[in-house]
Amino acid sequence: MDRADKMELLHAALRNDNATEFARLLKRFPDCRYDGAGDDYWMSAVAMRGKLWAIELLVARGADVNRPSNSTDSVPSPEGPIVYAANNGHMDVVRYMLDRGAEINHMIEGRVRCQALVGAAIWGHLDVVKLLVERGAAVNAVWAEMTPLDQSELHGRDEVAAYLRSIGWKTAAELGESAS
């Protein structure tokens, strides 16, 4: 059986919420745990889908909530799978990962970035935004000349923008950040 067939079996178990089969297949096909770059494929995949049971299973088997996830970012991306859970509004998964030490603020090219917060703000997941703020998301972190407040306003997430303003967050322009 080739890797594609193995991956399809794993995806089917995940789609069907079959924890027993997913666990059995992961054990049987350890070569399917990571992608070609060595990133933990399944942590990202299950976080994106909000499959808390699968996150718990992977963590119990030694998965690291901070292992960098596969990314198409223009710079090396240290963010872990919590970004995928936050982007998709999976509050229970975000909370679980935070409770197990998931880092949300990262230094990249000398700047602090919080992609989990940016994603939650872009997609309007106010409950996730509030949780990340409570857990220490970088206040007014500017990345690509935008703060999470800029992102929420740009994407029409008025409720998120109002909340961020209510706690004193600013846009990049208000912070004096400008194009170089």
CATH superfamily of the domain at 78-178: Ankyrin repeat-containing domain
Strand order across the biggest sheet?
1-2
**Which range best describes the helical content: under 10%, 10-25%, 25-40%, 40-55%, 55-70% or over 70%?**
40-55%
Structural class: mainly alpha
Rg, nearest Å: 17 Å
String of helices and strands:
HHHHHHEEHHHH
Mean pLDDT: 88
Strand content is under 5%
CATH topology of the domain at 78-178: Serine Threonine Protein Phosphatase 5, Tetratricopeptide repeat
CATH architecture of the domain at 78-178: Alpha Horseshoe
List the total number of helices.
10
Task: Report the principal-axis shape.
Answer: elongated
List keywords for this structure.
two-stranded antiparallel sheet, about 50% helix, mainly alpha, about 180 residues, 10 helices, Serine Threonine Protein Phosphatase 5, Tetratricopeptide repeat, elongated, single chain
Walkthrough of the structure:
With about 180 residues, this protein is mainly alpha-helical. It has a domain at about 80-180: Alpha Horseshoe (Serine Threonine Protein Phosphatase 5, Tetratricopeptide repeat). It has helices at about 5-15, 20-30, 40-50, 50-60, 80-85, 90-100, 115-125, 125-135, 150-155, 160-165, and strands at about 105-110, 110-115. Strands 1-2 form a two-stranded antiparallel sheet. It is elongated, with a radius of gyration of 17 Å. The model has no long low-confidence stretch (mean pLDDT about 90).
